Amino acid sequence: MPEPVLSFHDFGGDGPILHIAHANGFPPGTYRPLAATLTDRYRVIGLPARPLWPGSRPEEIRGWRPLGDDLVRQLDGLGLRGIIGVGHSMGGVMTLWAAVARPDLFRAVVLIDPVILPPHWLLLARLLRWFGVEPRPSLVRGALYRRRIWPSREDCFAYFRTKVFFARWPDESLWAYVEAGTRERPDGGVELVYPPEWEARIFTTVPTDVWRDISRLRLPTLIVRGEHSQTFFPQAQRRMERLLPQARSVVIPDAGHMVPLERPAEVGAAIREFLDSLRDR
Fold first, then answer.
1. Could you tell me if residue 155 is inside a domain?
2. Given a cut of 60, is residue 182 above it in pLDDT?
3. What would the pLDDT profile of 92-104 be if each residue is shown by its tens digit?
4. Angstrom distance (rounded) from CA 58 to CA 56
């Protein structure tokens, strides 16, 4: 088992620690616009998940459970307790599992469009895997064959600005991704920080057993979904609400799965309102 990376992205701020667990393919710094809506009340940090650890190898994992364990080990290693755990997409599942395993680490959790598919979809995924078929091959191919190198960050920004995936992203969010998601090369160009091989591995190991843990979450919880999400569907949200009667739910209009990057101000406002309600108790 690789040693956890304990260095973190520090967004600044004062107050209780709020940790943002990032999505597959998007390093912690990508969430700068969301963090900026919270740093007046909270110290916001983001730990890198295993795909961003130096020397980590995609074949190390057969599922996402180790990523949740990594988060526990990282928070433990930093001596943090009573944090607000915010997780988006893959990070939402990691935060859920960490909070179920070690509730003493958290005071509340926010799950933003987590990768929790409807049960019948997951049953189909298990069956396909049983027969050696990848349930979502287009995502894997897209990750493995995506462009990795550009002459400059300006060229990288211009390239992504034309892509449908980023159409709802404001320039501030896209620049945050370009700056956090690329590093300089010896030839003066820039390249992706997040290894595409790791991104593909995460897609091929989407968890099919996550529903059994949801009802074990006992902490104050906010569930956030993008209205047009093609990952966290309304039926999955409704099922989570039944399993977590103590949870609050918010749907952000005109947003998809990348809702905290498409609508950072609205997501930040929902998080603040939720956390304010806990202070009033």
1. no
2. yes
3. 999 999 999 999 9
4. 7
Give the count of alpha carbons within 13 A of 179, CB side only. Answer: 12
Distances (CA, A) of 263 to 30, 145, 210: 13, 28, 26
Give the pLDDT of residue 141.
Answer: 75
Boundaries of domain holding 227: 9-130+209-279
Q: Residue 98: inside a domain, yes or no? A: yes
CATH number for the domain that contains residue 273: 3.40.50.1820
Q: For residue 136, count other CB atoms closer than 10 A to its CB.
A: 13
Put simply, whether the predicted model's pTM sits higher than 0.85 gets the answer: yes
Based on its alpha-carbon atoms, the radius of gyration of the chain, rounded to whole angstroms, reads: 18
User: Looking at residue 98, what is its pLDDT?
Assistant: 98
Question: Does 124 fall in a domain?
Answer: yes
Residue 15 lies in a domain: yes
pLDDT digits (tens, 9 = 90+) for 35-93: 999 999 999 999 999 999 999 999 999 899 999 999 999 999 999 999 999 999 999 99
The count of domains in the chain is 1
The reported pLDDT for the residue numbered 133 is: 54
- Token pair, residue 10, equals 């520090």
